[in-house]
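Exercise (ungraded).
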Amino acid sequence: MATLEELQARMTRLEDNKQIEKLQRIYGYYLDYHEYQKVVDLFSDNADSVEIADYGVYKGKAGVKRFYLELLGNKPPRVGELSIGMIMQGVVDVDKGGRTARGRWYCMMIEARSTLSLHEGELRQLWGNGIYENEYVKENGKWLFRKVFFFLNFRTPYEEGWLKVPVVGQNGPGTEVPPDAPPTFYYPYPSGMHLRPHYKHPITGK
Amino acid sequence: MDLEELEKRVTLLEDIQEIENLQRIYAYYFDLQRWQDIVDLFSDDAESVEIVDHGLFKGKEGVRKMYWEWIGRGGKAVREPWVQFIIMQIGAVIDVSPDGQTARGRWQTWLCEAKTFGAFPRQEWLHGYYENEYVKENGKWLFSRLHWNNTFCSPFENGWLKTPLMGLMNYHPTIKPDAPPTAFHPYPSGYHLPYHYEHPITGK
């Protein structure tokens, strides 16, 4: 029979998982609505970085602000711009000590966006897919993002599909708001490159 | 911490799990076209149900009108094998009130449908957001309010950019809602369905 302290520790672990799942989903809802300041406020002041698809690495909380506010949010969305991200299937692991955590998620995207550059060119309807491998940190009892990493698998015109056109357009690295470092793992379909999971095999431990 | 506090925390986690199951079961019943079973997921004191452009239906009687009489055609609907409503309930953000008796939840939904629209069988993609309310009665969670706000309903052949809305579904010869739709503004209106929650860090 577990002691009260042990039960409390196990309880906290479950609550941590729930809070991180919620954080990740709320992040998605803010992104859908282009509410970038709210997204930035979900990151720790000691954030490591954000790296999405081919935009490159934006480091620190300053980089997080540059990426979301100055790059993505520098203009109001065009009429008809649509960016729905359906973030699913979380595998969240809280590290020993309960201060940091990591999570892998699928994201399926329903979009209508400019394909010439971030804000220019014909608006096209797209399907997108990719994987998040994110890191979280607990500060003052609340979970925040420490690192967001998104691996783009495909971003394809609705009419074509991922086999015919795996990726439409290029997003980065940007010249107006350049990243701190080039993309570290931009290998869309059909590269055959796989984004390594943060977790070990749950049975064999390898 | 004592046993009493621990029990409270366990109950909160159980509540969230039960509410998530309730929402998902609702979607499976919809696909199974078990309309009476859906009505029975609502509290007898339910406030309202509002789906797409059908309008606002108030009370448990309104819930019965919406699902059983309108969508289920009063039990006369023939369940055609080709008709399907695949409703994927994604991204639950559930907040249980401090007293543990009510809760609110936001979800997003991706649908893959085949149904008769007008005179023809059609296949379509839909997307939308829920902002729902739940109530605990006799230890069980029920819907007290359901609102599904539709982003688009687009034919498979065209997609959301070319045909955001396949057509209206707001007419019924005899069944009328208690009030018109409160927030039917499909793509590309740019409408934002308000969140029930504050920002988790800033509280704004």
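Further reading is listed at the end of the chapter. For now, observe: Helices of chain B lie at 3-32, 35-39, 59-71. Chain B has one domain: 3-155.
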